[in-house]
Amino acid sequence: MARVVVDVVLKPEIHDPQGEAIAGACRRLGFGQVAGIRQGKRFEVELSGPADDAALARIAELAAELLANPVLEDFSLRTV
Amino acid sequence: MTARVGVVTFPGSLDDADAARAVTRAGGEPVPLWHGERDLHGVDAVILPGGFSYGDYLRCGAIARFAPVMSALVPAARAGLPVLGICNGFQILCEAHLLPGALTRNAGLRFISRDVRLRIETARTPWTSGYTAGQQIVVPLKSGEGAYAADPGTLAELEAAGQVVARYIEINPNGSAADIAGICSDSGSVVGLMPHPEHAVDELTGPGSDGLGFFASVISVLAGA
Q1: What is the pLDDT along chain B (225 residues), one digit of tens a residue?
Q2: Which residue of A has its CA nearest to B64?
Q3: The complex's ipTM?
Q4: Neighbouring C-beta atoms of residue A49, cutoff 10 Å
Q5: Structural domain containing residue A30
Q6: Which chain A residue has the Cα nearest residue B66?
Q7: Which residues of A touch B59 (CB under 8 A)?
Q8: Across chain B, which distance is largest between two alpha carbons, in Å?
Q9: For the domain that residue A61 is a member of, what is the CATH number?
Q10: How many CB pairs under 8 A join A and B?
Q11: Residues in a beta bridge with B48
């Protein structure tokens, strides 16, 4: 079965306090090379048919309509 | 005739009872509306109450936006029905594109539960007509994702068009852009507010009765219509 992964991340200009808290924990753990972290979401979408262009276009619509809020977030699609 | 104000209950709504009580206290008739019904039962105005509709899954308000009741509410709101979204209701109005922008996680990460002082910025909406612009009120704020965000162009449009309804003063508790606590649609009839006026309608149970004006305003406007 074809699977599409939709990654949703906050837009660069949107403050991400969760990411900042995680980055702070990284430094406390000794991972000093971590300069910053942005937290996102990953959706694994199972398709009932092939992941062709038409199906991907529909999943992109779904991402823009429901999975991501375009005011705050960007999304990207990839097949796996 | 007594104004009939619908209060929607979604799975996970918390403040529907307080919103209904506030309507009663302001002299209106609260009408319970159910998320699963595509029917507004002829109400004169609607309140989307606070809470955690659908467990705040995905994003606050993102699932509630597609509830059957919204298929009746969205066109009615666009046609001028007064709608007030409080806290989670504000988040739902933004997700439904009835209001611009979005609510995101508090800057300090913590859930905030405290009384806040607001300045009412406009009395042109049916929900604030009983206040005067510049008036200060104290009402509770209780939210984890209450930081208002919008792109700079949208913020400039809101300011220019007088669509900022209320602003936090003294402190900005959650990192909201431009200290915004509430906004309205361009017509003014749809208002979203992050703090809770319905919890401030009685000296006995709230910080005062400053919030009653939101409910008294719409009932007065409807009585004069």
Answers
A1: 799 999 999 999 999 999 999 999 999 999 999 999 999 999 999 999 999 999 999 999 999 999 999 999 999 999 999 999 999 999 999 999 999 999 999 999 899 999 999 999 999 999 999 999 999 999 999 999 999 999 999 999 999 999 999 999 999 999 999 999 999 999 999 999 999 999 999 999 999 999 999 999 999 999 986
A2: A66
A3: 0.86
A4: 9
A5: 3-79
A6: A66
A7: 69
A8: 46
A9: 3.30.1280.10
A10: 35
A11: B85
Active site residue B60: no
Quote the tokens at residue B178.
């431009």
Angle at B175 between CA B134 and CA B11, to 5 degrees: 95
d(CA B187, CA B76) in angstroms, rounded, equals: 13
Query: Do B167 and B59 form a contact (C-beta atoms < 8 A)?
Result: no
- Total residue length of chain A: 80
State the total domains in chain A: 1
Q: What is the DSSP letter of B159?
A: H
Residues of B near A (CB-CB distance < 8 A)?
A: 58-59, 62, 66, 94-95, 100-102, 104-109, 147, 149-151, 175
Please list, residue by residue across B102-121, b when 16 or more beta carbons sit within 10 angstroms of its beta carbon and e when fewer do. Answer: bbbbbbeeeebeebbbbbbb
CATH of B4-224, one of 3.40.50.880, 1.10.8.60, 3.40.50.720, 3.40.50.2300: 3.40.50.880
According to DSSP, the β-strands at B180-184 and B190-193 are antiparallel
Question: What residues have CB less than 8 Å from B52, skipping those under 6 apart?
Answer: B12, B14, B60, B88
